[in-house]
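Hey, resending since the last one bounced:
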Amino acid sequence: MSFELEMAGDLSAAAPVPARVSYDHVVLPGDFPDPTVTKIGDTYWASATSAEWGAVFPLFTSQNLLDWELVGHVFPEKLPDWAGSNFWAPEFYYENGRTYVYYTARKKGGVLCVAVASADHPAGPYTDHGPLVGQEAGSIDGFAMPDEHGNLYLIWKEDGNSCHQDTPIWAQRLNPERTALIGEATELFGNDAQWEGPLVEGSALVRHNGWFYMFYAGNSCCGKSCNYATGVARSRHLLGPWEKHAQNPILDRNTTWKCPGHGTVTELDGRWFLLHHAYAAESHEFVGRQGLLSEFTWNAEEWPEFVHRSPQAPPLTNMARFNVADGFAGDRLGLAWQWPIGQQPTTAVRHGQLHLAAHDSRLGALVARRTHAATYKAATTLDFATLPADTFAGLAAVGDPYNALAIMAGNGQLQIWHLKSGKQQCLATIFIDACPTLSLRLEVWGGQRYRFAYSTDGATWQSLPTENFTLNGTYLPPWDRGVRVALVAQGDADNTATFNNFIICNQR
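The structure tokens again:
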């Protein structure tokens, strides 16, 4: 290939954290919305929204809150039988040696619900116990919290903004098994402050000096026009009355990070932190909402206080550490690979190659990786000579299975596929002479402009001709997700495409 890449750095391999280090950092780079964190024993565990991508709910571990290792998923393959989409906002609760994950998902053909899964170890395997609550407007963002008497409650948001209604935060007691609600629900508070706009959501609670504190998000979470921010309320009793801080929002945007919100509180060596998400201003929706750690202190009035009221995480500068160079060693795909939920492809990894079974859907079967920058190059080398007839395989920038730009090889041809809102067009076609392997490349500038090229010898690149020098990809990211780069195989399910490598080279 004509460009060299460093292997992506292992986020768990950094040196021990110095005692006086600044903890204001991007700790989950890439598309990890609604992050959560808890400490179990001497290990911190984190997860995040996975939305419409499998595997569902990543599981990370850390010893110092800065360096995280992906170790598994809550639902690594099979989805809960009742749920079909919208896998949002996992939250941990640990009790008596058992780990519970309260999460949001949409009931098949129905409403958004808060559900729970549990495991004997935080790494799993998890047993799903199904929905706890699903109101007519939908119920999301569940968080488990003991009251002042030790009774465990589920806190959640009624998703009224989905139907132009208010968004009360509710609390209801959990049964001793922690798998069902009992008693009556109590409304804690709703969206009644101007900065909160149409909603409050993403509740995360902590108890400090006799107070319950609820960190919560308000206003619009996502996309180009987001104006999310973080507020806090407190009460002496879990069921209220609750007092909102007069200085809300206590965490808001700055020139580097936009729309900070939906986080969980944790503590390390007497220092307090909120793990939350925000968009990087320079890449915004094209990369997605990234996991940031922001430190706060308690002021004289016993309110949490962030420095300068905005995320202080510095912008990512050494983007080479997030480069990807996967030569498909071992006998299975790495944990960082993803696929559309409900469409897990059949894959095999052997002898340094990925074998991806095709699918006859619009784009085909795909496996994808998150992006970390809005400007990058990605490439793969495909076994062109062994590609079966009427099977196309290649490299794609994917927002979701209905929105993608791809360079695809098959039937002795190379094509550029434009998939928008499920409608597919072929923008360019050229014929390729027979060759053993074919290298494919996409280049992206600012997340918006795309250009495709190919090489038959791995050294000399030819751009595919299009009407304009670059193609417009601004339509790719969905409202709540960043763009992925994917390997794709489209055709009969009995056919397989073989890939020799996968590379992403980031630029600022």
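Helices lie at 284-287.

Sorry for the duplicate.
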